[in-house]
Automatic annotation (TrEMBL):
The keyword Repeat applies. Signal peptide: none annotated. It comes from the Bacteria. PANTHER family: F-BOX AND WD REPEAT DOMAIN CONTAINING 7, WD40 REPEAT PROTEIN. This is WD40 repeat domain-containing protein. The keyword Repeat applies. SUPFAM superfamilies: Quinoprotein alcohol dehydrogenase-like (SSF50998).
Length: 328
């Protein structure tokens, strides 16, 4: 059994990440907790709504109830990147070349490295944003689909339509597919063909609950998802992705929902967090399971691997957090 170093944080913890080898935890009350030679706390000054990692420079990006978008360095230093008075910022995304994006109502705003901004208006509220792996391009999730925008050129936007509420969006690591999470407890995908979209859609349905966590395998062959009593893992290795193929179901537990999934950074091993606080690791090749943590307080709300894959941090809705040493 791997060793677990526990960390108790007051209230709901919405995310955990590694900045270098330092595990960090973001509490919805507005504090960032870093385990760096002891626990160090940075107070944001307002409630946090989202906290994501910018892998390009090993920092955090946060959006909060005070309308600020902040960059937080691994020493706790805060830099304000945007401020929208009297608005809540709950969508933030890191991009290439020092760019970041955030949502404000029906607008997706991209802030470039030099501080200049570009705004992209949608007909409906922006629910999520993701940057393409190559080129300065964003996917914007909204009601009834996704819009693709080129940030640095005047190319026409591409509309990917599918009826329903799209609440999250992700590009595949090779940029060939766009996948959304939906309010209707399903995933939907599009195969991208140059600057247009392939006419065939990818419908990934059958989830008993909404999908709130997605994770791509290191080379993009698999997309793992929460929202069922097992991690549902879709195959994306072939040119048509999961069309006509059944997913893997890993870590099945009767009537106990998976709430978080996170692929190991180097191997096809998936960490799975459950609604009862339990965490499993499962190997794709043979489905072999390893218990990483027994059930605890609160549903798992965040999972993050260190760059080496030897440490796994976890967050929970009850503040019952910690770091698991896989190599122990």
């Amino acid at each position: 059994m791997p060793t677990v170093a526990p960390l108790d944080i007051e209230g709901h913890v919405l995310a955990t990440h590694f900045l270098g080898e330092t595990p960090v935890f973001a509490a919805s009350g507005g504090t960032i907790h870093r385990l760096d030679g002891g626990e160090k706390v940075t107070d944001i000054g307002a409630g946090l709504l989202t906290c994501v990692k910018d892998p390009a420079n090993q920092t955090l990006l946060t959006g909060g109830e005070d309308g600020r978008v902040l960059r937080i360095a691994n020493d706790g230093t805060l830099t304000e990147l945007a401020h929208v008075p009297r608005k809540w910022i709950n969508v933030v995304a890191p991009g290439p070349q020092g760019a970041i994006a955030y949502a404000q109502g029906k607008s997706a705003i991209v802030r470039l490295a030099d501080g200049s901004t570009k705004e992209f208006h949608e007909e409906r509220t922006v629910e999520a944003i993701d940057f393409a792996p190559k080129g300065l391009r964003i996917a914007v999730a909204r009601y009834n689909g996704v819009t693709l925008h080129w940030v640095a050129t005047s190319g026409a936007p591409v509309d990917l339509e599918w009826k329903g509420a799209h609440t999250g969006v992700t590009f595949s690591p090779d940029g060939r597919f766009v996948v959304t999470t939906m309010q209707e407890s399903a995933l939907h995908g599009w195969k991208l063909d140059g600057k247009s979209a392939d006419a065939r859609h990818m419908r990934m349905t059958g989830y008993p609950a909404k999908v709130k966590s997605l994770s791509w395998s290191p080379k993009g062959k698999w997309l793992a998802s929460s929202g069922a009593p097992a991690a549902i893992v879709w195959p994306f290795a072939s040119k048509d992705g999961p069309m006509g193929k059944a997913p893997l179901e890993l870590g099945t537990r009767a009537n106990i929902l998976v709430t978080q999934v996170a692929f190991h950074p180097l191997e096809e091993v998936l960490a799975i967090g459950f609604i009862d606080g339990m965490i499993l690791a499962v190997r794709i090749a043979d489905g072999k399971e390893a218990l990483l943590r027994r059930p605890g307080k609160g549903a798992i709300t965040g999972l993050a691997w260190s760059a080496t894959g030897k440490l796994l941090s976890f967050a929970s809705e009850a503040g019952d957090c910690g770091v698991i040493d896989i190599s122990a």
